[in-house]
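About this split. The held-out portion is used to measure sequence recovery: a designer receives only the structure tokens and must propose an amino acid at every position. Recovery is the fraction of positions where the proposal matches the reference. Here is one held-out target exactly as it appears in the evaluation file.
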């Protein structure tokens, strides 16, 4: 997403002659290296020099078209100057302006002859312009052209020198033929045309016909190929029934302007009216004259006039919207940051059909709020959000500027990696820092990187601050500072709860930050912020008191926080402070060192406090009473101090602490009194944590009981992960009616949980990962799980033993009683088998996300199929899982992948299954039945029905007959003993050991390729069903030498690659066959390709090529065409044709930018197509990596194509 800004210098420059004054306009020439000029102008100065030619020449200059224009008149009869001959030959094309007196000039006629000769010999482009003359008069030499030719003939006849007369006669003949020839070419007629519009059409025609390589003027962008392709397709949309607006959004410096400028330069000449307005916000910036200047520029460019500047914004808006309503325009508005700018520049009347408007902005929601979208003229709108470069692209850009190359210099690896991590793919940062560190040694890099965080006036920071300064609300600015200093990485709901308690409005504030690309929400719902943006936010806080952190509102630097607390310099201005002793490097803290609690006594406004692994000594009543969030990881006491002021706390995090209990609600009064006395928890105010909404006691290894929930009436989130000694949860939890999340993951010794049937109605999420529910004997209320199962008369699976009925009771309790409101349920690593599951999950009618990873299930439990809203089902690392049959049709995401080798052998979908995202590991060398319906099917070929093989045209296969008779010994005793049939993408294939291809392959060719023409329908009356292709392979390099080719892994395919190209229809399929085994000597690959009429038909010329693996060689290949048989009533291939992602079906995810298809099983699970060197012999154009959305998988083709969804919405 960044520009490689080094431009190639023009190799040629204009030259002057001592006896003529010729001009050529270069600028950033779009000519190729083989040409000096784009256009040669041939004209009669007497007719057009001061009018049409002057205007045309200026338009060509403005369009960056290198043009040769001769300024000197030559008397009739003089020979063509040598420099003009050279200029014609050095031009890509010529414009011939045929005017009334054109033919009176022998020089013009000589130019015409040479131009047409050049056209015949070098594809010279010729564009005739009939300037107020009739093409017929030119063609037949009539009118003024007839008069001129008569005068030339008279001159010839009066010539007394026989040789000269002969030469003139020959010239006359060439002139006459040239005039006839040029009049027969497709030209442009100026008669009755407004000259400005006519000239604009000519310039557009030149760009279209000469195909200027504009990338010379606008260098290629890194990481932008996918976006450029999308915008190009969007701009070329043939539909003219509406206008379109495209928003390119992203944080400052991410490449929005470069992308917009690039596509504008590529396509501006496809529009009669166009305008590119750059840096609008900077020019605007509250300056009234700046606003008017922008409006005037836009109006002048789209109206094609030079207007008198007015001083009324509304008047300019009216003039602009009138033009936009009546003209088809291409308009780029760069750097828009307010609704007022959009309203002033676009108005409300709408656009002419076919117009395209591109807007770059840091505020991605801005466009939807402008006046235009509140009228009936609501245009179509799309958005592209730029997120930065990936690691490879980042390194290329940084190295380009730092080392003038795409690779790092020797010895710079470590410092370069640090800088890449710091920039996090931000193009402007990579460019600026790369240029700054150019030609510097490693030690300079190290010192510079250390000082980066103290940088205050860098261009990077200044660009990013523009988004911050555009925030109109002080609330939003304070919100940004809070998050930048303390809350990055925190769950969104947790952060909102804390910030709202700090009187920060988050409902609109967070949306505003996201809209301005200052904040994003991660896949796990956590707050994310680019590191450079975070540092900019912290820099804003530091400006409150650059050298005295105790005078700042936020103190986040751990060393500074320690300094403030040690010296007791904290003041009431501090609202947030963070100290984590593990983050302080090199600090010598003696064993006797400790912080006093009174260090916080003067911080009356402190609301956010983090004291991780800090040993505090003294009375806790010195803690500020205004605390809203208290985080004390590694808290050293075994109980919560009774004097700690917590009435205003909304979030308490005591993770990794030594606390033993959080309880004062034992039924046994003696135990209660003893516990209250020892823990110091006996308080007069039972609501001692009445405001607390979030309680986190995770990883408290000494914690054995949870209680006192009656003092937590507002509690919303209870997080108690990995408390390995926790044995009971108090009955009082039933009083926490506001609970929305319960996380007891990996509390595997939990023995007591209260009955909460119908009480906790707001719980949306329950996480019970690693609780060994499959083996547990949790006592629920006053009954253990066996009694509960019996009392509720719960049915169990007939395969379940008596010992497992309690397990069913446990899970049934959670789903039928506590969890009826659940949206998310996670039972990962809970030792649940298929038999352990209850038979009924109908009570979970609200469930959308279910995680069952790491459980010993062998098939999909029946109860899951009844869940009416399930959107995400995760079965990752369920290593005993063999079959997943008919998952809920509502799924939008199915996860089956494994950290080790894949385990699932068969996946079958419901015919009415909605499109979904599907993740699974490919299974290599499967030795038995393996099928993912709609994706791939593998089975032993001996199990394939005979009638299916016959339908494919696979008859009399010697190896198969021998295997059936038990006489084949070539395929025994090895991992390939079971020869398999593979079906994917509409292609059947098998591989077996043999040296000769089947006899019924009559069309053969030695070597790896074959070409043929499909017979016409007259010679083959039946429909073409498909074709069989066979190739014979041999090993040329022993496997022992494979290590020598490790560094050339991308030079060869991993298995033999088959490319079929229909030359006639310009269609291509590249099939990288599923890897299922290998042979040592000679073997056959046999494949059947199902084609329809749209892919192959009579008369088509077809080529097939095999690209071998590095150590293999194709000896011979053959083709056999397969036609329908009239006597066949049953469509044996019907099931296979019903698959969706096959040739003739939906292969959009596998299609490259050139239109070719790369059919590779791995592409189902990837976000793009990689073009390796072995692809380039077939696909010369396009980027090496072509980004795609994850494949929207649909097993079976829908009956109605219009119900296909492009991409299902889902949440993680």
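Reference sequence for scoring:
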């Amino acid at each position: 997403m960044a520009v490689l800004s080094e431009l190639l210098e023009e190799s040629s420059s204009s030259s002057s002659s001592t006896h003529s004054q010729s001009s050529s306009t270069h600028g950033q020439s779009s000519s190729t290296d083989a040409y000096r000029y784009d256009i040669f102008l041939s004209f009669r100065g007497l007719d057009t020099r001061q009018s049409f030619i002057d205007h045309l020449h200026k338009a060509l200059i403005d369009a960056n078209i290198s043009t040769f224009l001769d300024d000197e008149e030559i008397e009739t009869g003089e020979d063509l100057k040598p420099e003009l001959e050279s200029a014609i030959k050095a031009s890509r094309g010529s414009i011939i302006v045929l005017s009334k007196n054109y033919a009176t000039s022998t020089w013009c006629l000589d130019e015409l002859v040479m131009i047409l000769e050049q056209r015949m010999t070098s594809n010279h482009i010729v564009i005739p312009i009939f300037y107020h003359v009739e093409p017929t008069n030119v063609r037949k030499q009539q009118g003024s052209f007839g008069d001129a030719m008569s005068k030339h003939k008279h001159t010839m006849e009066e010539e007394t020198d026989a040789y000269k007369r002969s030469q003139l006669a020959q010239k006359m003949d060439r002139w006459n033929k040239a005039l006839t020839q040029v009049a027969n070419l497709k030209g442009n007629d100026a008669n009755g045309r407004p000259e400005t519009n006519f000239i604009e059409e000519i310039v557009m025609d030149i760009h279209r016909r000469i195909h200027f390589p504009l990338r010379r003027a606008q260098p290629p962008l890194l990481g932008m190929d996918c976006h450029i392709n999308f915008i190009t397709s969007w701009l070329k949309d043939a539909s003219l029934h509406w206008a379109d607006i495209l928003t390119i959004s992203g944080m400052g410096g991410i490449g929005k302007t470069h992308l917009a400028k690039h596509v504008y330069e590529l396509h501006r000449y496809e529009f009669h009216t166009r305008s590119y307005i750059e840096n609008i916000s900077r020019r605007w910036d509250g300056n009234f004259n700046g606003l008017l200047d922008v409006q005037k520029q836009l109006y002048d460019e789209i109206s094609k006039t030079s207007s008198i500047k007015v001083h009324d914004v509304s008047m300019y808006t009216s003039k602009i919207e009138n033009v936009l309503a009546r003209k088809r325009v291409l308009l780029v508005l760069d750097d828009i940051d307010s609704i007022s700018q959009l309203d002033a520049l676009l108005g409300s009347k709408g656009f002419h059909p076919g117009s395209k408007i591109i807007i770059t902005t840091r505020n991605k929601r801005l466009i939807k709020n402008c006046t235009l979208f509140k009228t009936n003229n609501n245009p179509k709108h799309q958005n592209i959000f730029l997120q930065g470069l990936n690691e490879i692209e980042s390194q290329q850009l940084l190295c380009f500027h730092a080392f003038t190359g795409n690779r790092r210099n020797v010895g710079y690896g470590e410092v370069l990696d640090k800088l890449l991590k710091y920039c996090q793919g931000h193009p402007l940062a990579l460019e600026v820092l790369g240029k700054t560190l150019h030609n510097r040694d490693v030690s300079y890099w190290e010192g510079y990187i250390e000082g980066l965080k103290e940088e205050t006036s860098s261009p990077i920071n200044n660009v990013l601050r523009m988004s911050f300064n555009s925030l109109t609300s002080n609330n939003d600015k304070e919100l940004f500072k809070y998050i930048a200093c303390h809350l990055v990485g925190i769950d969104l709901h947790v952060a909102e709860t804390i910030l709202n308690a700090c009187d920060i409005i988050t409902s609109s504030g967070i949306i505003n930050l996201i809209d301005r690309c200052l904040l994003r929400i991660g896949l796990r719902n956590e707050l994310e912020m680019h590191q450079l943006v975070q540092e900019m936010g912290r820099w804003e806080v530091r400006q409150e008191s650059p050298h005295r952190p105790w005078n700042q509102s936020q103190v986040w630097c751990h060393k500074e926080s320690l300094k403030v607390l040690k010296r007791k310099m904290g003041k009431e201005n501090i609202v947030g402070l963070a100290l984590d002793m593990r983050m302080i490097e090199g600090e010598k803290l003696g064993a006797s060192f400790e912080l006093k609690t009174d260090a916080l006594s003067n911080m009356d406004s402190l609301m956010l406090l983090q004291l991780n692994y800090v040993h505090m000594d003294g009375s806790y009543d010195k803690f500020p009473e205004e605390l809203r969030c208290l985080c004390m990881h590694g808290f050293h006491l075994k109980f919560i101090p009774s004097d700690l002021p917590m009435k205003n706390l909304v979030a308490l995090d005591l993770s990794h602490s030594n606390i033993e209990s959080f309880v004062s609600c034992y039924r046994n009064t003696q135990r209660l009194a003893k516990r209250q006395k020892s823990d110091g928890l006996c308080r007069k105010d039972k609501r001692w944590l009445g405001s607390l909404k979030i309680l986190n006691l995770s990883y408290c290894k000494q914690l054995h009981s949870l209680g006192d929930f009656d003092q937590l009436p507002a509690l919303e989130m209870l997080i108690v992960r990995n408390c390995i000694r926790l044995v009971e949860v108090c009955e009082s939890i039933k009083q926490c009616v506001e609970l929305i999340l319960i996380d007891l993951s990996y509390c595997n010794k939990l023995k007591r949980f209260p009955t909460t049937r119908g009480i906790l109605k707001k719980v949306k999420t329950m996480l019970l990962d690693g609780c060994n529910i499959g083996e547990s004997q949790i006592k629920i209320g006053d009954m253990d799980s066996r009694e509960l199962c019996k009392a509720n008369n719960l049915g169990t699976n007939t395969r379940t033993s008596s010992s497992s009925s309690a397990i069913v009771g446990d899970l049934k309790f959670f789903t039928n009683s506590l969890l009826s409101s659940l949206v998310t349920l996670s039972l990962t690593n809970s030792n649940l088998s298929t038999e352990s599951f209850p038979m009924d999950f109908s009570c979970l009618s609200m469930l959308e996300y279910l995680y069952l990873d790491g459980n010993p299930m062998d098939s999909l439990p029946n109860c899951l199929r009844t869940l009416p809203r399930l959107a995400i089902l995760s079965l990752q690392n369920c290593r005993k899982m063999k079959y997943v049959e008919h998952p809920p049709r509502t799924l939008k995401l199915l996860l089956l992948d494994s950290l080790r080798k894949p385990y699932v052998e068969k996946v079958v979908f419901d015919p009415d299954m909605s499109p979904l995202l599907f993740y699974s590991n490919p299974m290599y060398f499967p030795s038995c039945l393996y099928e993912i319906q709609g994706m791939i099917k593998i089975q032993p070929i001996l199990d394939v029905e005979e009638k299916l093989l016959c339908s494919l045209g696979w008859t009399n296969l010697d190896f198969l007959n021998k295997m059936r008779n038990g006489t084949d010994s070539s395929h025994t005793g090895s991992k390939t003993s079971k020869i398999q049939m593979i079906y994917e993408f509409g292609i059947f294939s098998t591989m077996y050991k043999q040296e000769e291809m089947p006899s019924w392959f009559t069309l053969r060719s030695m070597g790896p390729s074959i070409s043929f023409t499909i017979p016409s329908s007259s010679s083959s009356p039946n429909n073409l069903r498909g074709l069989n292709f066979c190739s014979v392979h041999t090993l040329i390099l022993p496997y022992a030498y494979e290590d020598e080719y490790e560094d050339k892994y991308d030079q060869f395919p991993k298995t033999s690659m088959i490319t079929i190209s229909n030359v006639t229809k310009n269609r291509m399929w590249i099939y990288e066959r599923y890897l299922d085994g290998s042979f040592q000597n000679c073997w056959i690959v046999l494949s059947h390709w199902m084609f329809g009429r749209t892919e192959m038909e009579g008369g088509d010329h077809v080529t097939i090529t095999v690209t071998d693996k590095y150590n293999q060689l194709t000896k011979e290949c053959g083709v056999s065409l397969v036609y329908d048989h009239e006597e066949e009533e049953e469509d044996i291939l019907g099931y296979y044709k019903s698959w969706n992602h096959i040739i003739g079906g939906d292969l959009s995810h596998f299609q490259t930018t050139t239109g070719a298809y790369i059919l590779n099983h791995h592409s189902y699970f990837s976000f793009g197509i990689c073009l390796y060197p072995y692809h380039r012999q077939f696909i010369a154009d396009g980027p090496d990596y072509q980004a795609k959305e994850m494949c929207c998988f649909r097993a079976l083709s829908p009956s109605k194509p219009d119900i296909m969804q492009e991409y299902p919405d889902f949440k993680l």
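Annotator remark: The longest strand covers residues 1024-1035.
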